[in-house]
Amino acid sequence: MLDFTHSAEATSWVLSANAPDTDFPIQNLPLGRFRRAGAKEAWRIGVAIGDQVLDLAALGQLDPQVAVLLGPLAQGDLNGFMAHGRAARIALRHALFTGLSAQPSGTASLWRAKAGALLVPQDEAEMTLPCHIGDYTDFYTGIHHATTVGKLFRPDAPLLPNYKWVPIGYHGRSSSIGVSGQRFPRPWGQTRGEGESPVFAPTRRLDYELELGMFVGVPNAPGTPLDMAQAEASLFGATLLNDWSARDVQAWEYQPLGPFLAKNFATTISPWIVTMEALAPFRAPFERDPLDPQPLPYLDSATNRERGAIAIALEVWIQTNEMRAQGQAAVRVSASSFADAYWTPAQLLAHHASNGCNLQPGDLMGSGTQSGSAASQAGSLLELSQGGKLPFALANGETRTFLQDGDCVILRGHCEAEGARRIGFGDCAGTVLPAVERG
Ligand code: MN
Q1: What is the CA(43)–ligand 1 centre distance, in A?
Q2: Which of residues 128, 152, 170 is at a domain's end?
Q3: What is the Å distance from ligand 1's center to 113 Cα?
Q4: What is the CATH number of the domain that holds 20?
Q5: How remote is the CA of residue 434 from the centroid of ligand 1, in Å?
Q6: CATH code, domain carrying 413
Q7: Per DSSP, which regions of 323-439 are E strands?
Q8: pLDDT beyond 90 at 114
């Protein structure tokens, strides 16, 4: 699975890609869709390298050898490329690596000579969703989150009996998914209220959820399930995902059919899709507690046990209005790891398709809130404030039980492993605006 593109020593002629703390060294090469900010030009596919974006449309015009590989990518269509699967991704990755490498070659010299036409600084680029997201499904693989939240909603039965057998999920809504930088008004909703009748008002318990987003690449035909190897091969890559949640609305509406308006008003993802190849050095064993039920055969494979999990360090940062006014940067409020997820990405896809449901290129799967076992690893305010009972202190002295207007929530993620170059996801930021006034 590892090749020359994973060499920790490899560097790029794009010097910012060699900074030790960059999210986008030459070993990463994530894909996104961009244009120059303020320009009315067409969206196109780019690759993050250091603090720059490599423009694949410009590259296709420059390099005929790479142009053949790009196909629909050169027209700004990521979905068509996603459907091709692993071999196409690897071919593109090899070509990008060679052209961007500090190692001298004809290709690298050609690209370097045309750097002015090929590269756009990231701070001059405007990002949009990386692909067309036809369907969005949100899972619930964070067992610590499920247990803590279950205790708040159902003290008598925190973890329902199906949790350890079936990857729990619900169908979300794709129309309101936005890219980092998304700003949305505090949603209105119906809540139980204090009196005899429910109340319709702006939510008072607005929260975030720290999740990983996984994109489907290779589709399966209707009626054709995926085995575990096919599910793994169908995965395209990952982003960070914030599943904003109105907890008071959720508590009132969620039974018997699950989340509805509490979660479909906004979902924010990071702009860059980190490919499965970039994540390869960070795969980890899937270990199920021997005292827990073991996965049914359709959710089990030797490869999945050996390296089905992915070790991704995840973080939540918050910048309040007051911090912004004082010129203070965002502060970190929690950190956890995707390695603690109860199910692996391949298990989620295999389960999703197990009834014959067809998955399509660009479909997005949320992992569910990733919280660790410690209180400081909680991936939502619902957990950090113990259901809103205990205000949570921010570093500047402010407190939060739930989000206030003006709060900007930033998710960050990165991967580190012995012998591998650190890679990251870039920011996934979203800001809460005041509720829209209505009669
Ligand atoms: Mn969620």
Answers
A1: 29
A2: 128
A3: 46
A4: 2.30.30.230
A5: 23
A6: 3.90.850.10
A7: 331-337, 364-366, 392-393, 399-400, 408-415, 423-424, 428-433
A8: yes
**CA 241, CA 366: separation in Å to the nearest integer?**
7
Domain of residue 288 covers: 136-433
Tell me: do 281 and 357 sit in the same domain.
yes
Assess whether 37 and 156 both reside in one domain: no
- Degrees (nearest 5) of the Cα angle 126, 131, 136? 120
Distances in Å between the Cα of 43 and the Cα atoms of 39, 72, 104, 203 are: 10, 13, 31, 35
Residue 186 to residue 349: CA distance in whole angstroms: 32
Q: Are the CB atoms for 280 and 312 separated by under 8 Å?
A: no
Q: Are 83 and 217 in contact (CB under 8 A)?
A: yes
Q: Which residue has the tokens 């974006």?
A: 53
**Do the domain assignments include residue 59?**
yes
- pLDDT tens figures, 251-300: 999 999 999 999 999 999 999 999 999 999 999 999 999 999 999 999 99
pLDDT digits (tens, 9 = 90+) for 1-10: 899 999 999 9
C-alpha of residue 316 to centroid of ligand 1, in Å: 15
In the annotation, is 145 catalytic? yes
Instruction: Name the token pair of 316.
Output: 């939540």
User: Measured in angstroms, how far is the CA atom of residue 204 from the centroid of ligand 1?
Assistant: 18
Q: Which residue, among 8, 15, 5, has the nearest Cα to 416 in the 3D structure?
A: 8
In this structure, are 121 and 146 located in the same domain? no
Which residue matches tokens 């904003």?
244
Sign of CA dihedral 319, 322, 325, 328: negative
Residue partners of 205: CB distance under 8 A and separation at least 6? 246, 247, 248, 382, 388, 401, 402
Q: Is residue 137's pLDDT more than 80?
A: yes
Q: What pLDDT does residue 1 have?
A: 86
Cα of 259 to ligand 1 centre, how many Å? Answer: 9
Q: Where are the alpha helices (DSSP H) in 30-77?
A: 56-62, 64-70
Q: Residue 248 above 90 pLDDT?
A: yes
438 domain residue, yes or no = no
Q: Choose the catalytic residue: 145, 351, 352, 414.
A: 145
